[in-house]
Amino acid sequence: MQDRIMLFIPMYNCEKQIGRVLDKFDQDTQKLFGEIVVIDNISPDKSIENAVSSLQRFHNVKTTVLRNDQNYSLGGSIKVAWDYAIRNGYEYVITLHGDDQGNI
Predict the structure, then answer these.
(1) Cα–Cα dist 94/27, whole Å
(2) pLDDT single digits (tens) 18-76
(3) Backbone conformation region of residue 97, classed left if phi is above 0, alpha if psi is from -120 to 50, else beta
(4) Is 46 exposed, middle or buried (0-12, 13-18, 19+ CB in 10 A)?
(5) Alpha helices in 1-104 (DSSP H)
């Protein structure tokens, strides 16, 4: 089933939190998903750099980091994620905020 589940993590100014969010995914948890997609909403901080750095330890799931062309707000980023999921054949999308609001 993991090939049909995409995890989407929106972020804006999450430089300090995105590492903590991604650290929650151990090797077994990574296997639950077909892909983890982080979408940055043109953060002026080092959110992208920290996400890319944290994702380098992920070996059991495909990871993708995207950056919006402009600030689409959370709703716009969700639309970008759903479009990506549909184009890539995912049937399910789970959202986990990049600012560490939730717990996996």
Answers:
(1) 18
(2) 999 999 999 999 999 999 999 999 999 999 999 999 999 999 999 999 999 999 999 99
(3) beta
(4) middle
(5) 18-23, 27-30, 47-55, 73-87
Strand partners for 11: 40
Average pLDDT over residues 95-100: 96
Q: What angle do CA 2, 37, 42 make, to 5 degrees?
A: 170
> What's the whole-model pTM score?
0.94
Which amino acid, 99?
D
Q: How far apart are CA 55 and CA 31, in angstroms?
A: 14
Q: What is the DSSP letter of 79?
A: H
Provide the pairing of β-strand 5-11 with 35-40.
parallel
Residue tagged 């077909």 (tokens) = 34
Give pLDDT, residue 1: 47
